[in-house]
């Protein structure tokens, strides 16, 4: 327990100390054969999550998210380091009584009905929620007698969410929860997540939909190649990138725009009724870009500057070194964007 | 128990009652077996069909000192239980491993032992059901019946003796994919039944099969059943149990190895 306080930490320690942390990972690495899916010989991942709050775990494919989730759920054994979930090793069945998880590749026995599956899971936990409550929360009451095999993709994901919360867990893992969900399922699902948040549950979420993460997460951890490359609130992550999208109408060509040193990405969209093309430019220094454009005598209309979304921040972070490795795509001026 | 406002861990019992967990898992396994008609119907009908084809025309004969009817009734009960162990267990486990259900249950507090225990229990109950159907058929169609004492004795021996076959089925299921498990189990089951005197009496088998039989688990399994209805013993009862226990240990190790391999398997 004291090991985590003795270590230097980039973040201030949680106010109630490590004993109160929902999740504590120290020097965690995982190797499959010769391939390090997480960490490496020199060291591994350190991560602490205090109780309560929703943390979004982001990263491109192959960043080690699935490996990390597998280790946190006790499905995998660390090569090095240790995992503590609610103060215990998740590989012990007892530690998993306070843990719930919606796996990315959900598997439901086709022979069992929705209610039978929920009842089965309820029996595995010491103090489960009533099956009817969970059916209501996931809007599955009308489908309770249906076999799992007859559910749509979104309904099955909702059932998966129901299975993950029926044990009334303190810590909830949601791995790509909204994949295959339609709009209606998504709304029901996020209402359920809000209910869990309101009860003070600790939630760990992975998602490809960054606008979702931006909306619900208190904290964002970005992984790349098995290492944490950013960790903070959505606001601090975005501020760290200092990116912005600038859009305006001008008579500049795509070449003119790309000649500006501050431009990361640029696209032009022409419309037939005007010679003023709509330019959309991604930049880390909107002030300097605009100063340079005005200094060159360019005339800009309908100017808009918007701060980077989490998605843009994520793309910038995971693309590699700022500037140098961030590719400038002439191809991002899509042919399709020229409106006829 | 003190009531606190926060739903803290300290006031929760450590785990769900084991019996409640096991009952729920067993119920789920039974429902899965009973609703899989494509598997259930043949596995209930095959032993009855074999009895009708091979036993009913030969009811007048005697085998190992007892009437052929009861003897072959025990044989096909043994066949039914061995098949149940191999298929309801092995093949179904392989399918479930591939579907990810086993991995998903490993996220819950259910221990692998409880899950496998439920699978064992469900296949025992299925086997029991198929033997009871066979007993009813034998009595109705051939007037062949065992006394209550004999029935209980045969069932007890054969149900306990299923253990090595259940473990073998599990090892096949864990070690091979769903595509490979079914043919492999068949490849083991049918020759095993022939070479152990269960499909037809060893007295009329070729010499090399008579020599081979005492090394096979199903031979000792059959002996336990036949001697329970008064057949002439071949070897002591202790030897039969010992051989089955030895095979159980071997297959259990095989299971453990296959399970570990599954655990470390990526993805």
Written description of the protein model:
The complex is a heterodimer of chains A (340) and B (267). In chain A, helix 5 (153-165) runs parallel beside helix 6. Chain A is of the alpha/beta class and 340 residues long. A 6-stranded mixed β-sheet of chain A has the order 6-7-8-4-9-10, sandwiched between helices. In chain A, strands 1, 2, 3 and 5 form a 4-stranded antiparallel β-sheet that branches. A 4-stranded antiparallel β-sheet of chain A has the order 12-13-11-14. Chain A has helices at 2-6, 65-72, 114-123, 131-137, 153-165, 183-198, 210-216, 234-241, 254-258, 286-295, 310-318, and strands at residues 21-32, 35-38, 45-50, 53-58, 80-85, 99-102, 171-175, 202-206, 219-224, 227-232, 244-250, 263-269, 277-283, 301-307. The radius of gyration of chain A is 24 Å and the shape is globular. Helices cover 29% and strands 26% of the residues of chain A. With 267 residues, chain B is an all-alpha fold. Chain B is 73% helix and 1% strand. Chain B is built from 11 helices and 2 strands, in the order ααββααααααααα. In chain B, strands 1-2 form a two-stranded antiparallel ribbon. In chain B, a hairpin with a 2-residue loop joins strand 1 and strand 2 (66-67). In chain B, helix 2 runs parallel beside helix 5 (112-142), helix 3 packs antiparallel against helix 5 (112-142) and helix 10 crosses helix 11. Chain B starts with 17 loop residues before the first helix and ends with a helix. The model of chain B is unreliable at 1-12 (pLDDT under 50). The interface between A and B is large, with 37 and 34 residues.
């Amino acid at each position: 327990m004291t090991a985590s306080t003795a270590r230097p930490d980039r973040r201030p320690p949680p106010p109630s100390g490590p004993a109160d942390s929902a999740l504590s990972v120290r020097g965690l690495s995982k190797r499959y054969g010769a391939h390090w899916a997480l960490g490496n010989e020199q060291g591994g991942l350190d991560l602490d999550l205090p109780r309560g709050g929703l943390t979004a775990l982001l990263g491109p494919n192959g960043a080690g998210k699935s490996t990390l989730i597998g280790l946190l759920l006790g499905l995998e054994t660390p090569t090095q380091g240790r995992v503590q979930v609610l103060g215990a090793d998740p590989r012990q069945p007892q530690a998993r009584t306070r843990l719930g998880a919606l796996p990315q590749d959900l598997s439901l026995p086709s022979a069992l009905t929705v209610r039978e599956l929920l009842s089965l899971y309820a029996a595995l936990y010491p103090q489960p929620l009533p099956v009817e409550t969970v059916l209501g929360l996931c809007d599955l009451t009308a489908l309770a007698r249906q076999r799992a095999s007859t559910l749509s993709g979104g309904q099955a994901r909702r059932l998966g969410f129901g299975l993950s919360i029926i044990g009334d867990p303190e810590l909830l893992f949601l791995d790509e929860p909204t994949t295959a969900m339609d709009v209606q399922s998504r709304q029901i699902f996020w209402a359920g997540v809000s209910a869990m948040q309101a009860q003070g549950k600790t939630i760990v979420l992975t998602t490809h939909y960054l606008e979702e993460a931006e909306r619900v997460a208190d904290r964002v951890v970005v992984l790349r190649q098995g290492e944490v490359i950013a960790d903070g609130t959505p606001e601090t992550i975005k501020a760290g990138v200092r990116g912005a999208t600038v859009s305006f109408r001008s008579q500049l060509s795509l070449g003119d725009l790309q000649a500006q040193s501050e431009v990361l990405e640029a696209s032009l969209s022409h419309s037939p009724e005007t010679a003023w093309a709509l330019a959309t430019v991604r930049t880390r220094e909107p002030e300097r870009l605009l100063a340079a454009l005005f200094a060159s005598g360019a005339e800009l209309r309908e100017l808009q500057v918007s701060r980077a979304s989490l998605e843009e921040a994520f793309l910038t972070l995971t693309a590699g070194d700022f500037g140098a490795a961030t590719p400038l795509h002439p191809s991002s001026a899509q042919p399709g964007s020229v409106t006829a | 128990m003190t009531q606190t406002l926060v739903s803290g861990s300290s006031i929760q019992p450590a785990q769900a009652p084991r019996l409640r967990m096991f009952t729920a898992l067993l119920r789920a396994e039974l429902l899965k077996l009973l609703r899989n008609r494509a598997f259930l119907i043949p596995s209930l009908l095959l032993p009855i069909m074999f009895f009708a084809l091979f036993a009913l025309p030969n009811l007048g004969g005697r085998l190992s000192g007892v009437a052929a009817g009861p003897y072959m009734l025990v044989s096909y009960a043994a066949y039914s239980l061995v098949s149940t162990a191999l298929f309801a267990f092995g093949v179904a486990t392989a399918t479930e491993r591939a579907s990810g259900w086993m991995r998903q249950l490993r996220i819950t507090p259910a221990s692998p032992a409880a899950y496998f225990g439920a699978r064992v229990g469900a296949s025992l109950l299925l086997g029991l059901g198929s033997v009871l159907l066979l007993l009813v058929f034998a009595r109705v169609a051939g007037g062949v019946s065992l006394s209550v004492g004999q029935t209980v004795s045969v069932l007890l021996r054969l149900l306990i003796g299923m253990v090595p076959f259940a473990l073998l089925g599990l090892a096949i299921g864990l070690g091979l994919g769903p595509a490979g498990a079914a043919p492999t189990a068949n490849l083991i089951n049918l020759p095993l039944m022939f070479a152990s005197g269960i499909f037809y009496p060893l007295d009329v088998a070729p010499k090399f099969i008579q020599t081979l039989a005492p090394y096979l688990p199903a031979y000792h399994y059959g002996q336990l059943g036949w001697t329970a209805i008064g057949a002439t013993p071949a070897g002591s009862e202790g030897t039969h149990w010992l051989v089955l226990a030895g095979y159980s240990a071997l297959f259990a190790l095989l299971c453990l190895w296959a399970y570990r391999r599954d655990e470390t398997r990526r993805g």
